[in-house]
Amino acid sequence: MPRPRLAHPLLRLALLALLPLLALLCWYLWSPGLDLRDGTHDVGHNGLWMQHGWFADDLWFKAGGANNREKRKAFFRDPATLARTAELLRQFHIGDVFPHLCPCNSDGTLPRVDHPQVERFLDAFSDFRVFPWVGGIRGDGGGTAFPEDPTWRRTFITSCNELLHRHPRFAGIHINIEPVPSGDRDFLTLLEELGAAIPADKLISVAAYPPPTRWHPFPNVHWEEAYSREVGQRANHIVVMMYDTSLHNEKLYRHLMDEWTTEVLAWYPRDEVLLGIPAYDESA
Question: N or C: which end of the chain has fewer CB within 10 A?
Answer without folding.
Answer: N
